[in-house]
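Question: does this match?
>
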Amino acid sequence: MSPEVVGFSFIILGVLLMIGKWIRVATPFLQSFFIPSSIIAGLIGLLLGPEVLGLLGVELFEGGGMFPEPMLAVWETLPELLISVIFASLFIGKTIPHIKKIWEVSGPQITFAHFLSWGQYVVGITIALVLLVPVFNMNPAVGALLEISFVGGHGTAAGLSGTFESIGFEEGRDLAVGLATVGVLTGVFLGMILINWGARKGKTEVLKDPGDISDEQKKGLIKKEDQQEEPAGQQTTRPEVIETLTVHFAYIGIAIALGYLLLEGLILVEEALWSDTIELFVHLPLFPLAMVGAVVVQLFLSKFVKPAVIDRGMINRIQGFALDLLIVSAIATLSLSVLGEYLLPFLILSAGAISWNILAFIFIAPRIMPDYWFERAIGDYGQAMGMSAAGLLLIKLADPEGKSPAKEGFSYKQLLLDLIVGGGIVTAASVPLIAAFGPVPALITAAIVTTGWLLLGLLYFRKKK
């Protein structure tokens, strides 16, 4: 694989993203349901690749449709790399507040988000035990796919491909990416329906008319006069010495390196103590530990580096760039043959996750949230359907002027959610844990934890209404 192929692979991803953006700006339907340009670009790549155009006999390159096989090989490896960049970016540049403040502001959202996440394990593993394993002879780890795909999203789904392969569940990667795509598409679509329903039925405390959503929001553009309100980033170093972007990327790299060293240390400990009976850390991917490395980097920067050289806006841009590339490359290399082979299990899992999230939003969230239940819960719902960005988007649509505590609570909530589920340690370890101990202990554990979060919401936060 030559350097030219790697370089052109990124160039073509950029072209696909630009085409996706043009299609979105020109298509009112896609705007109305806030379909991300990266999803559109990935689907275009899938259609032009070997899984669709290639099967129809249209091949600009042998075996690759409109793309050469080495380029597709680059795209297949990108998600595992980019997911570490995304997770290493989560905490760098963020002021980590006192745990008491986090709980006071976002406690209800933390509770509901964990209830949704752990509940997806309950739903997924139950479906696996009742149907997918005995009827379709699937790997028991299929029960973990709902939380991996819907809460974790494309990054986690694609980033765990090595873990799936290590336990003999190679089809898990394509199923997970496919489920993540269904989650994002239906999540925003159904989220818009829920916002319209909430505004008309008086469930929302801020948005009174669905027509209040501006055309700029739908198109994904920012007016010229408003662009200074949301800067892409601030320069913190002089470019003649070192570019600000370079500094930020370097600290992300340090966080990933720390995560790698931590992972290797855990593997060495496992090999020395218990690898003869059970293997866990050898199947653990890098990205959740890159997030731990990011926390270490941020604590170091806060304590020892003065003046501050990290701008959170710049980190967000790097994270967003990595996420866009990840989604395009993951969807463009999706195996439709695997989805076709497991179509019925795929549809059953999709229906199970979507039903769980919607029912929990409508019936549980109002009983947990002490105030602004709709504005708070719509963000957790959006994230539970595949993307944190989708959760923030739905909060902005339901509360465009930030009158509720929903956005602040959503941001604080990530500190006590992403380290655990939604791509965190539990998400990354769920597949090897099921492979090692079986699905029944995992189901019992998930059911107990889900019930605990529900009781916390009903017995503690409900009294604060």
